[in-house]
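Hi R.,

Here's the chain you asked about this morning:
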Amino acid sequence: MTDLARVRRELLEEITAPHAAPQVVLGRVPENMVLVASELATNALQHGRPPTVLSLLADDLDYLLDVCDADLETTPVIAGERPSGAGGFGLLIAHRLSQEVGWYTTDATKHVWATFPAQR
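And the predicted structure, written out as tokens:
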């Protein structure tokens, strides 16, 4: 949890760096990606099992954020009705700010991913 501020800063720097292909004009995409990455990583840290790994991948059209942890027992779910400030809205935020959101497991890890447009 103590590294999240650094991770958010480094992610934003990487997405908006001059060498960061394939961007042309990203608009709010970098800020949305940082928020979603922070939410998904926080979920993994609070509800998953170590280690938590955040990855950023890109092709000519999209960015893919992938957050994984070692908890194969819990299923990511969108929070239902909750009072303001009660938390539990990470996946809902991801659904609202990204193109697609999903999850899958391997033999050792659970992955939650979100995609964002890399070009406009």
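The chain has a mean pLDDT of 84.

Let me know if you need anything else.
M.
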